[in-house]
Every structure is written in C-alpha cells, then in structure tokens.
C-alpha cells in the first residue's frame, strides 16, 4: 500500500507540470545562516474532470464502519475539489471464503452522495483534493478482513475506475494474467460487466479481485420456491462456478480439468463440501470418490493425474519424446527419400516395434515444394517405406509432381495414448518435423528450413490445452507450426470454405465466417453455432501475436485461395488481403484493399508463387504508421 504525504504529492504534481509557487519565498536569514523555508509551490485545483485519478492513502476497519483516505487529481494532475460522490464495498473473508450478502449481514457497502446515499456516510475534504470517507457497515468488526473496492466521482467529476484498496492473502488462486490469456483487456470489451474491471492501488488491473467483490465464494441463498433471498453471498453465480461451470465447453480441445491453465497458485481444498469441488462433483458417489485432502494436497495435480482424461500421460509423452527428419536424398533407384527417427530423450526408439505393440498409430511423410521461405505445394503424397535396423523409418517417393527448384519434407508421428479414440487421429499426441531445404538440381546443397511464424509458442495451447491433436495428427504446440505442413501458401485447401493458408484460416475460424463452420459446437438441432472465441475481443491480437506484427515482413507472395472461392481451384490471393479479409469481409473493406493493390481470387499460373504482389498495405497500416494496425488492434498486455 502506498502512503504518500500531501506535501510529497503536491511536489510531484508541481514538478511534473513545471509550475512555480505563488506563496512566500521565505525570510532572509542572518549572514552566513540559511533562511527559513517557504510553504513551497501551490498546486492548482479544479472542480470538474474528464478523468479522475485516485491516489489511495489509507484505510481503517473499525466496529461498524470503514474509513478511507485518498487524494484525487484530474487528467492534467490538478487536485480536484468539491467531490460529493463515493462508494465502497467490503466482501469479508469468512470460513467459507470471500462473502458479501445483500442484506448486509456479512460484509457491506456504503455510498456518499447521489440519490441513495447511505445513512451516516460522510465524505469530508481534509485539504485540497484530499478526502476522508467514513462508510457505516453494521456487520463489520474491528478484526474483519476483507476485499475492499472503492470508486469516487459522478456528475461533473468523472467517475474513477473501481479500485481494490485491500485484498487478503490467498483470496483466489487464479490470476489476471491467466484470465487475460483469453479475456485480454476485458474492460474494453462488450462482454457482460466489462465496466466493473478493477485496478489495484498501483494502477494495475486486478481482474479476479474485482470480480470477487460481487461474485463471492458464497452464492446468494435461494428460497424453496426458487426466488432469490438477500442472505448468503451477493450473486447467484460464485466465482468458482463462473470458472468451473461456464468454461466446461469453452473451446474445442479444451479440458477444464487441466487446472494449471487458470490456477497459477496451488488449489487447496480439505473437503468435497468446500468451495469449488461441489460445483462439479454434485453426486454422493462423486463425493465419495474424492480423496480426503490435507495441507499438502494440490487439486491441480490431482486432476492432471486423472485416468479419465489421461492428461498427465499426454503431457509426459510430449515432454519425453521428439522426432527428426533427414534432408531429402536419392536412393539407388532414383527415388527421393527421407529418414524419420523417434527419440525418448537421447535414446532412439524402434518405430516398427512401437507400431506392432499399438503405441503408434501414424508415422508418415510428405515432400513439399519450397520458395521464398514458404511451402508452395505438395510434390508427392505416395511413397514406399522401409524400417531400418537402428529403429528409424525411411520413406521414398518415386516421382515429384511440381519440380520446384527447392524441395523439403515434413513428417508426422502419432502416439495413441492410454485413452486413444480412433476419430481422425484427434485424440493422439503428435510430433511434426521439417527437413532441411535442398536444391532439386543438387541435393547436396542444403539450407535450414525456415518460415515466418508470427505467433508465440503457447498461442494455441492456452485455450487448446489438452495436449491432443486438432485433426489428422496436427498438433497445437509451437503456435500451430505443425499445421503449416498442410495449411500453407500452396496447399490449396478449402478449410470448410473459411479462408486459405494458415494465418487467414486461423483468423476466420476464430472471428470470421469460419467461426460457425468449424463444427466445434452445435445446437440441439445439430446446427453449427459460433465457437467460444466469438465472444472474446477479436481486436486483441496479443492473445496470439504477443510479440507484435510487422506487415512489411510478410513475404510478398500469393497464396492459393479456393477457400475464398467456393472451392474452385486455380485462384490466388495476395497475403495481407487474405489475412485481413478473413475477418473484415464487407464489400467496402474489400474495395479498400483492392484500391491499394490487394487481390482476391485472381487466376494463378503454374509458377504463381514466383510473382510478387502489388498490395501496399504496409505503407499506411504497418505498426507505428499513422493508420497502423496497432492503432486498431491491441498487441500489448
């Protein structure tokens, strides 16, 4: 908690604004002696504000009341006088967790000013801009610990943000950071209660603390007829219910029992009747299955070990294994071959033996055309295979279809896992490797495979957290880099007619037309409905692009785009247009793109990938420009 004196605050404001003082400059001292100091500069005061900043000073909890002291300034740092409105809420820490009842029997709230001022509440200005707020709360005692939220302002003095001025230790085990992995900058969204997002006394967002002032650990009591009572907690939905129940079907390939996704701190419960457990474990048999907890019990680890979800097994498989893929070479028959190897740590495993005992379901490879750090097509799909004595698997492709100047290969290898379901390989754990790039005219000329991949490693796994595959052995790890083997510039896939390539497809599947086409969710009649990403802030690109975006770095290279053309092959789209059109698909938006060199579904020739595009989007919309993408999309947390 900050404890800044009034003199110190006045000095800070005056120094920041370069204001000279108006008071006496002090008396002259005797020769050789210092003079007496004057009162210092006099800061300006205002009676209105467009922004109200609160510098919290102190609070005191006594029997029957809470007293708060704070100072307020406007958008220019000037002290605000004439404040008449303030409100404070206290959710008490009880044996059942955080609790505030509507009838005032636990915790409490009070307001000064307005039409519904609390009887006995007073708001007194102690000095320019500095106030004391005495808030009566009958249920509060001197030893009450509580979560305290303050807001001031109203009328010509702008309302301040909600501010958490006190929060007991271990009030919650989730964090703003874990929630904001998906709900980035919730306060700017159109999601319910976005205006209630609170700050702490340092001006940082305290998302969970702000929610818990109303969504306590204790639910509001309900009468036998189903009507709500004012006893118990404040809201019907507790904080743990919002987290546990409302996120049960949060997203495709999301496992709510992967508790580490949300709970950054250990979750300790000592009883099935405790907060959180009985939200999901509602039956007597479920309660009986819960091991009696102790002080060392962490519910996160317990759920990760559950045989039902197999999460720990999948995480172990991913942590312990890796694959490599050799550069393409020609065998004696002239076939184009590559060797796939599987490792557990540094030990090479036998792929053939793991197939035989049912551990593996898939181990395959493709050869791709490559140009300008992009995969531009599939050179070969069919191959012959050989299992080698060292445990590796060799796959040889007799012919190449495209004859691109550069070629490379990708591989997929999939573990079944203990709860394997043979459904398009989605329930396995897959590993993808990319070979070095070789010159078709001279296979001895090798360079490392590279591709611009502007998302972070955990961009996908924050939400898709169950360590499985999307489909056909494609993994969510490394920001979906595995998906690029099939979803790339030259693999002319329809992707349910959502969008082409990798970036445009991801944009569309989450926030564009593909959002309802993915089939991740259906209504009772079997019709597709928007997936969960639809309710998140689409402009908060930082969820995936945590390191920002540079439009100028996007390779000036077309991508095949039958996904934008109802499945008709032989057309291509310029890259920035393809990505932006995935969400901004109105006629006016497309017209703007085309007027600035963008192209949508123009004819593609045999060497389409060698031609540069004419789109000039980066000129105005690159990060940092006057109309930069960062002006309209958030790339900062």
Record keyword descriptors for this entry.
alpha+beta, 14 helices, 637 residues, six-stranded antiparallel beta sheet
Give a verbal description of the structure.
The chain is an alpha+beta fold. Among the domains are: 43 residues, no CATH class; 162 residues, Immunoglobulin-like (Sandwich), CATH 2.60.40; 151 residues, no CATH class. The protein contains 14 helices and 29 strands. β25 and β26 form a beta hairpin. The N terminus is likely disordered.
Topology (SSEs and partners):
Layout: H1 6-17, E1 45-46, E2 53-62, E3 65-73, E4 79-80, E5 86-94, E6 97-99, E7 108-112, E8 122-127, E9 130-136, E10 146-152, E11 162-166, H2 176-180, E12 198-200, H3 207-212, E13 220-222, E14 228-232, H4 239-244, H5 277-280, H6 284-289, H7 299-304, H8 311-320, E15 321-325, E16 329-330, E17 336-344, E18 347-349, H9 351-356, E19 360-371, E20 374-380, E21 384-387, E22 393-397, E23 406-415, E24 429-434, E25 437-439, E26 442-447, H10 477-480, H11 503-511, E27 559-560, E28 571-573, H12 575-581, H13 587-595, E29 602-603, H14 617-621
Parallel strand pairs: 1-4, 11-12
Antiparallel strand pairs: 2-3, 3-9, 5-6, 5-7, 5-10, 8-9, 10-11, 13-14, 15-17, 16-17, 17-18, 17-22, 19-20, 19-23, 21-22, 23-24, 23-25, 25-26, 27-28, 28-29
């Amino acid at each position: 908690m900050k404890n800044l004196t009034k003199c110190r605050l006045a000095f800070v404001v005056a120094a920041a604004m370069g204001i000279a003082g108006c008071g006496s400059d002090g008396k002259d001292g005797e020769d050789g002696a210092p003079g007496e100091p004057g009162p210092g500069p006099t800061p300006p005061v205002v009676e209105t504000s467009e922004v109200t900043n609160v510098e919290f000073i102190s609070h005191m909890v006594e029997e029957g009341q809470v007293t708060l002291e704070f100072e307020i300034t406007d958008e220019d740092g000037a002290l605000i006088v004439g404040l008449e409105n303030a409100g404070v809420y206290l959710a008490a820490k009880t044996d059942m967790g955080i609790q505030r009842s509507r009838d005032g029997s636990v915790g409490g709230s009070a307001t000064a000013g307005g039409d519904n001022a609390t009887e006995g509440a007073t708001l007194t200005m102690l000095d320019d801009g500095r106030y004391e707020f005495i808030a009566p709360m009958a249920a509060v005692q001197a030893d009450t610990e509580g979560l305290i939220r303050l807001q001031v302002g109203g009328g010509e003095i702008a309302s301040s943000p909600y501010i958490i001025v006190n929060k007991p230790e271990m009030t919650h085990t989730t964090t703003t950071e874990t929630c904001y992995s998906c709900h980035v900058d919730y306060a700017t969204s159109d999601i319910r209660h976005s205006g209630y997002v609170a700050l702490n006394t340092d001006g940082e967002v305290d998302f969970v603390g702000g929610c818990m002032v109303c969504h306590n650990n204790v639910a509001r009591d309900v009468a036998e007829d189903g009507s709500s009572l004012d006893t118990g907690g404040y809201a019907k939905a507790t904080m743990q219910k919002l987290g546990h129940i409302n996120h049960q079907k949060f997203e495709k390939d999301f496992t709510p029992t992967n508790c580490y996704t949300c709970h950054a701190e250990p979750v300790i419960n000592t009883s099935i009747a405790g907060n959180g457990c009985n939200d999901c474990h509602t039956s007597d048999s479920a309660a009986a299955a819960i091991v009696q907890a102790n002080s060392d019990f962490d519910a996160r680890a317990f759920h990760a070990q559950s045989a039902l979800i197999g999460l720990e097994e999948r995480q172990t498989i991913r942590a312990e294994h890796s694959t490599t893929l050799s550069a393409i070479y020609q065998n004696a028959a002239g076939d184009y071959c590559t060797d796939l190897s599987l490792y557990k740590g540094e030990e090479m495993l036998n792929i053939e033996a793991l197939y035989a005992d049912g551990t593996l379901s898939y181990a395959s490879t493709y050869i791709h055309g490559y140009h300008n750090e992009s995969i531009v097509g599939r050179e070969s799909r069919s191959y012959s295979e050989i299992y080698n004595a060292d445990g590796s698997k060799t796959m040889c492709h007799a012919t190449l279809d495209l004859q691109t100047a550069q070629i490379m290969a990708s591989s997929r290898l999939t573990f079944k896992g203990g709860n394997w379901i043979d459904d398009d390989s989605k329930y396995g754990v897959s590993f993808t490797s990319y070979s070095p790039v070789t010159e078709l005219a001279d296979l001895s000329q090798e360079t490392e495979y590279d591709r611009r991949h502007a998302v972070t490693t955990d961009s996908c796994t924050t939400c898709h957290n169950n360590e499985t595959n999307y489909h056909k052995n494609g993994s969510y790890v490394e920001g979906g880099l595995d998906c690029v083997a099939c979803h790339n510039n030259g693999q002319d896939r329809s992707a349910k007619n959502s969008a082409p390539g990798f970036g445009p497809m991801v944009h569309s599947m989450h926030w564009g037309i593909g959002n309802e086409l993915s089939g991740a969710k259906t209504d009772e009649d079997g019709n597709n409905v928007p997936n969960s990403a639809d309710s998140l802030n689409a402009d908060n690109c930082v969820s995936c692009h945590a390191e920002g975006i540079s439009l100028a770095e996007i390779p000036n290279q077309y991508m095949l785009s039958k996904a934008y053309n109802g499945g008709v092959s032989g057309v291509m789209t310029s890259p920035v247009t393809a990505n932006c059109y995935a969400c901004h698909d109105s006629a006016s938006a497309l017209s703007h793109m085309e007027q600035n060199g963008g192209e949508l579904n123009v004819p593609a020739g045999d060497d389409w990938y060698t031609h540069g595009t004419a789109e000039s989007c980066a000129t105005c919309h690159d990060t940092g420009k006057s109309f930069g993408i960062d002006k309209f999309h958030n790339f900062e947390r």
